[in-house]
Write a structure and sequence with these properties.
Helix 3 packs across helix 7, helix 4 packs across helix 6 and helix 7 packs antiparallel against helix 9. The termini are far apart. The protein is α+β, with helices and mostly antiparallel strands. The chain has 9 helices and 4 strands.
Length: 219
C-alpha cells in the first residue's frame, strides 16, 4: 500500500514540486511550492475528517493535495490535466492500485477553476483547500511597485482561515484584508470564479460556502 509518507519522501516527486514552483517564479505567479501544497494538504485532511470519511480516503486526498500542482512544470495552462497525467505515471510506477490512482488523478485534474468540477469527495475537498489559500506570504516580491493585481490581492490578505461549521453545514472562509491596499471588489475581480467553484465543492458535501471579510459576510 502506497502511503502519504512514501509520497512525501519520494525524491522524484519532491523534485517535480520544487521545479514546478521554480518555473512559475519568472512569470510572476505566487508561491506554489512546499508551503502551498502542505497547507492545502492539511486543510484537505481536516475537511474529510470533519465529513467523516475513512482513513484511506483521507490518505489518498493528502497524496492528491501534495501532488496537485506538479503540472506547472509543463506549463501553467492546463496544469491540472498535465499534473494528472504525471501523477498517473508516478503512482503507476509505485504499483498503486488503479482504483486509487483513478480517484487521485480525477481530483488533480479537476482543481483548476477554468475546467474544474467536484467530481468526487477528494476533488471537492482539494478545491476548497486550494482556493482558500490566499495569504501575504505567497507573494514572491516585496516591492509594492512591482505588484500586479494578483500580488496586491494576496499581499492585502493578512490572515485567512477556512472554518468547517458542521452544526450549520457551512464552509466559511474568514479573511482579514488590509483595505488600504485593495477594495473588496478587487478581491472578487480576481477570485470570483474560484469562489463559485468553492460553492459547488461545498454543495457536494451538502454544505454552503460563505466569505467573511473583516468579520462581515460578503458572500
Amino acid at each position: 500500500m502506497v502511503t502519504f509518507n512514501d509520497i512525501k519522501h519520494n525524491e522524484e516527486i519532491r523534485t517535480y514540486i520544487k521545479m514546478a514552483d521554480d518555473s512559475l517564479s519568472p512569470m510572476g505567479f505566487t508561491e506554489h511550492g512546499f508551503a502551498h501544497v502542505t497547507r492545502v494538504m492539511d486543510v484537505t485532511e481536516q475537511i474529510l475528517k470533519k465529513m467523516g470519511y475513512d482513513e484511506r480516503t483521507i490518505e489518498l486526498a493528502k497524496i492528491s493535495a501534495y501532488m496537485h500542482d506538479i503540472g506547472n512544470i509543463v506549463n501553467r495552462i492546463d496544469h491540472a490535466q498535465s499534473g494528472a497525467v504525471m501523477a498517473f505515471r508516478l503512482l503507476t510506477n509505485l504499483n498503486m492500485p488503479a482504483e486509487e490512482i483513478s480517484r487521485i488523478i480525477s481530483a488533480i485534474g479537476n482543481h483548476d477553476e477554468s475546467t474544474a468540477f467536484p467530481v468526487n469527495e477528494i476533488a471537492a475537498a482539494l478545491i476548497l483547500a486550494d482556493k482558500s489559500d490566499v495569504r501575504r506570504s505567497r507573494v514572491r516580491t516585496k516591492d509594492h511597485k512591482a505588484f500586479d493585481i494578483h500580488d496586491r490581492v494576496n499581499y492585502a490578505v493578512e490572515k485567512s482561515k477556512l472554518e468547517i461549521d458542521t452544526e450549520n453545514k457551512k464552509f466559511i472562509l474568514h479573511l482579514n484584508i488590509d483595505e488600504t491596499m485593495i477594495t473588496i471588489s478587487e478581491y472578487f475581480e480576481i477570485f470570483m470564479n474560484r469562489m463559485i467553484l468553492c460553492r459547488r465543492a461545498a454543495r457536494f458535501f451538502g454544505y454552503e460556502f460563505e466569505i467573511m471579510h473583516n468579520k462581515m459576510r460578503v458572500m
